[in-house]
Amino acid sequence: MSDMLSMIAVAIKKEPDKFKYYRDYYNVCLQDAKANVDNLKWLEKEALKIQNHCFVKGFIEKSGDFRDLRRDIFTALALFDFDSYMIALEWNRKPEERFYLPRRKVLKVAADAIQELEDDKLDELFLSQPPRTGKSTLMIFAMTWKIGKDSEASNLYSAYSDKITNKFYDGCLEVITDNVTYRWNEIFYQFGYGKPLTDGKDLTINVGRLKHYPSVTARSVHGTLNGACDATGWIISDDLVSGIDEAINKDRLVTLWQIVDNNLVTRGKGKTKFIWEGTRWANGDPIGLRLEVLDREENKHIRRKVINIPALDENEQSNFDYDYGVGFTTEYYLSRRASFEYNQDIASWNAQYMGEPIEREGTVFESADMNYYNGELPSDDMLVRTFMAIDPAFGGGDYTSSPVCKQYTDGYVYIPDVVYDNGEKTVTIPQLVDAIIKYNVTLVRIECNKMTMSYKEELERELEKRGVKINIQTKAAPNNQSKEARIFDKAPTIRQFYFLEENKRSKAYKTFMVNVYSFRVTGHNKHDDAPDSLAMAADVIERPVGARVEVFKRPW
Q1: Least confident of 189-203, 350-364, 463-477
Q2: Residue at a domain's end among 332, 358, 384
Q3: Average pLDDT over the chain, rounded to whole?
Q4: Is the pTM of this model over 0.70?
């Protein structure tokens, strides 16, 4: 059985264009086998995940050892399919000790993009994930796959330090030579590579034969690149920025980009593919600047894909809660974010864990400058009014944002709750009505224009259905002042508001505060809905709409 599959694999290797003819038989093969063999359920499930590659019907029907059959199928497919390669590579390992399968539910999107590179459907891939989630090991697996299936190509790996390049070199060597843990030699045995030719000093690996430009060269971005390495296959850059000290130093970033653009990028020849992966520290980091270069008209033909997998999803749940406890829970990430917030460095949280480069220059709200309370509000005897300022949105990535504001006779304003959701109006309007009823809100101001008038009207209808009568004010955004300038103008008043302490906040409240801390008065803000709604609340206090009320002495 194994011999037959291997023969097919070799034949397809020689004539890869004929591989497509097997696909038509694949589903028929599975259906026929399933009718007679219950043990093929697992095979069907897994095989359908690997792009419906196919094999001749008779091979499946004749096999008696179904575990060996699955192994052999993944092994044969490994020559062409990266996802299958990683499964086949670790077949002999205990499930809880494997790298890929426990993480596959998350890393599959990156694996598929690497497949697109190799299939010449992409030219450059940009990948960001939080620390210790597997992206560097994924690069090791990708590189060992590349040199196994295409030993004549020369490939380059680069990072900010020799320590990281050494680790990558050792990782590749381990996969190739550890025949107990990994099945690299079994997967590529028909090519007869033998023992790899290595140089631990120069960090080079040659597969098959000694070549002028090795199969793999691992070299720090600050090392000797010119003349020492050329790449006809892949160039992988892995965390080219050393850390926060370099990220906040614009001069160092400029120098780094000159090295990357002049020395690293130029190592590519012909149809060399690029993988850029690492922490997005700043907009001016090499990944950001490379993306800017690709946006130029003369580079529109370069096919690229950007993948950012943040620590927390849109529901504030961990994206990396891997099987067997090898990942990170939601509680872990929330705790890490709270620590960054406490240290007045939410920008670093966004960069390291959320894949959002945040420029520290121009940030308006620092956590240390804000006021907080423990959830206990002042006496109702001191309450002047409870109002809400609503910045409406219709979904599509934008957030409907509205703080619940309690204003007291001493002038202070407390924010006991917020509505902050990027859902459609059928989701956000009921949330607003619930908050209005729960907190006995007496005044609502909504930013209204021609586009959002229907939102205001729908809110009124929903309030009427619930039997709620309330004063709703509308005010258009000023056309003589930008949103950034308006928020900056109201920042002193916003800093006087009292927000809930971290451990008292709901999920929406936490996301709201992260958006506040991330706001910059200069540059691009992905979302500014939270600070904008706070600016509206400040405007309610400073410039009320409607009749003016004054307290004066009685004339008699």
Answers
A1: 350-364
A2: 358
A3: 83
A4: no
**Lookup: tokens for 477:** 């955004």
| Sequential DSSP letters for 199-225 | ETTTTEEESSS--SS-SEEE--TTS--
For the record, the structure tokens of 29 come out as 């093969």
Answer positive or negative: Cα dihedral of 252, 257, 263, 268.
positive
Among 525, 130, 164, CA closest to 351: 130
Classify residue 397: in a domain, yes or no. yes
- Residue 178, φ and ψ in degrees, nearest 5: -85, 90
d(CA 138, CA 150): 18
Dump pLDDT digits (tens) for 394-414. 877 789 999 999 999 999 999
Residue type at 290?
R
> Are the C-beta atoms of residues 99 and 141 closer than 8 Å to each other?
yes
Structural domain for 169, as ranges: 93-358
**What amino acid occupies position 30?**
L
User: Phi and psi of 229, rounded to 5°?
Assistant: -145, 135
Residues in Cβ contact with 27 at an 8 Å cutoff, skipping those fewer than 6 apart:
52, 54
Boundary of a domain, candidates 77, 107, 129: 77
- Cα radius of gyration (the chain): 29
Tell me the average pLDDT across 452-481.
87
Q: pLDDT by residue (tens digit) across 52-84?
A: 444 433 344 444 445 666 777 788 788 888 998
- Are residue 375 and residue 523 in the same domain, yes or no? yes
pLDDT over threshold 60, residue 141: yes
